[in-house]
Amino acid sequence: DTRHGTVLYLEDVSVSFDGFKALNKLSLYIAAGELRCLIGPNGAGKTTLMDVITGKTRPDTGSVFFGQTINLLAMDEPAIAQAGICRKFQKPSVFDALTVFENLELALTTNKSPWATLMFKLSPSQRDRIDEVLTTIGLSAQAKQRAGILSHGQKQWLEIGMLLMQDPKVMLVDEPIAGMTHQEIERTAELLLSLQGERSLVVVEHDMEFVRSIARKVTVLHEGSVLTEGTMDEVQNDPRVIQVYLGG
Ligand code: ADP
User: Fold this and answer.
1) Where are the domains of the chain?
2) Which of 16, 17, 21, 89 has most ligand 1 atoms within 8 Å of its beta carbon, as the pocket-test mutant?
3) CB under 8 Å to 186, separation ≥6 — which residues?
4) Which fold would CATH assign to domain 35-47+83-246?
5) CA–CA distance, 219 with 118 (Å, rounded to integer)
6) pLDDT one-digit tens code per residue, 94-119
7) Backbone phi, psi, residue 78, to 5°
8) Which burial class, exposed, middle or buried, applies to 59 when counting CB atoms under 10 A from its CB (0-12, 13-18, 19+)?
9) Using CA positions, which residue lies closest to atom 13 of ligand 1?
10) pTM score, two decimals?
11) Phi, psi values for residue 2, rounded to 5°
12) pLDDT tens for residues 156-207?
């Protein structure tokens, strides 16, 4: 049973847009606690794959399971998020006018009015949770600063922290280091590595050096299916991968 031990199980997933197959019988298995990197040239289907997992796009055929038994194709987008699959988009969306702490406080709630949330007193356990996340994302010293004055990298970490407030089981992360300084890139690698184990991560990234620094296993997408999987060394020396990237 291939579903044993997997947190995400996609089998023979196909998605067509006006007859064009953005995903073509794609199969992907993510183990519990794993950090997997997803690479592939533009148009390979990476975004569509993320959209299928979060329920934004419904495949024409195939199976998508979360854990052993949860059929994601039977759930809508909010239900999938509620079940513990979250997505970090490339552009950070934090509330500039609020402090770092308040941004994390807001992230405690999902549906109620965000502004009402800030008027209630936090429970001690909620406060502890925020402190814990502040430590994880390395922004404890900035807790009382307005998010608007954070650097680009710090804003990205804050947004990761906001997602962590919901205690997700799976985090889908879209190009986390775009626009970051070298130092911020190193810190982001450490942060993502610290999250694996307890959670599973699927990271879409173009920077191969960064991929090498975080991922034990890399999946290469091409024309809507998995071209190959393996360590960064294995995939980088694969003639098919070289051909796809060089367009030979
Ligand atoms: P990647 O993220 O790897 O660059 P995408 O998943 O965005 O690839 O796209 C895969 C293919 O599907 C591309 O050729 C893209 O043009 C096409 N595509 C994606 N979304 C749509 C859509 N909503 N309508 C039509 N074509 C789409």
Assistant:
1) 35-47+83-246
2) 17
3) none
4) Rossmann fold (3.40.50)
5) 41
6) 999 999 999 999 888 755 566 666 66
7) -60, -35
8) buried
9) 43
10) 0.93
11) -70, -15
12) 999 999 999 999 999 999 999 999 999 999 999 999 999 999 999 999 999 9
